[in-house]
Amino acid sequence: MTVKINELELENVKRIKAVKIEPTENGLTIVGGRNNQGKTSVLDAIAWALGGNKFKPSQPKREGSVLPPNLKVTLNNGLVVTRSGKNSVLKVTDPEGGKSGQQILDKLIGEMALNVPKFMESRPKEKADYLLQILGIGEELTKLELKEKKVYEERHAIGQIALQKQKYADELQDYPDAPKELVSASELIKQQQTIMAHNAENQRKRMNQKSIYQEYKAAEGNVIALEAQLTEAKRKLDKLTDDLETANKDIVDLVDESTDELEENIKEIDAINVKVRANMDKERATKEAEEAQEEYEDKSLELKKVREEKMHLLDSVELPLPGLAIENGEIIYNDQKWDNMSGSDQLKVSTAIVRKLNPNCGFVLLDKLEQMDLDTLKEFGGWLEKEGLQAIATRVSTGDECSIIIEDGYTKEEKPKQFTGFKGFGGKENGN
């Protein structure tokens, strides 16, 4: 049997002076009224009574009251929970007259049932983590998601490289008429090098003659300028005269050989080899692009396999609501992310997950339902009734959708225990 609330009796709690409520067993019980009349105080008092001191308001006693808060909650399993006296002492009495404490309440009642807004206001990933914690597959799914992300990023990187390589290969020039192998110019180059060496020797001799001539002119000048060294200068001049005559004889018959023909042949070979190398570069680039594409396709298959493992893992557990799923670390309901869900769907998803956290707890507390129009309230209330869930909620309203109206800390007047305008809210019709 799931635990639900049969009756509430609250006195001197926050804005409440004296309120008694008998919530409908299944469906939506709306506590209505204008602002600052004590509606939210009802939910805070229930959370404190059942959830313990971590839910205790910072100023629990009603301002102006000489009496301490007095809370009494009767559950459908017969337990009676009270907090009373100066220190708001907890007392939990079972049908047989025994007594127990907060521990038994914590086992029966999920913390999130007392604080659904905490779940609704959490970040998308935290909502998904709550659900995965319930299902017991959080750690395994996290590993698969990390693997999926890694494979996806690797595949993306490979895909970019494959595109770049293919683009590079397509841009390279090729020459279909060129030979497959590079043409050798080694023999021609050797001949060219021999001629160039011969010509270099000729050039060396020319430079030598020029150098000797310059020395001769310098010596001749020295003879004129340095009479004190005339004898030595003449000797040197005579020697240089002989050397010059020899050098003159050496260059008279020198003839440079031409390398024009060899250079033309080498240029022709170079031109052919440029085309061959271009073809080889294009072939290599095309092959690399094909290999990168094959690697990309392999990563695509690996990514598909990881995603299938994720789907199999999620399909292997029973989610708390049809149409509910987890994708990329976020809760999805009917193919919509949280921020795209309607207010009714957000409440429906939150309530279903909170119930899954503790299946023994058959009620939830909801605040500020004034954001919902009457049709949305009807839809949500009908779903609660169908699921056998009890919800106690507040709404800034004094309309017929409210089960009770709180005014200045009191129940304004006796009203039906459920929204009588729509049967889908659960409970009996008005007038019965």
UniProtKB/TrEMBL annotation:
This is AAA family ATPase. SUPFAM superfamilies: P-loop containing nucleoside triphosphate hydrolases. Pfam families: AAA_23. Residues 7-309 form the Rad50/SbcC-type AAA domain. It comes from Absicoccus intestinalis. Keywords: Coiled coil. Residues 190-309 form a coiled coil.
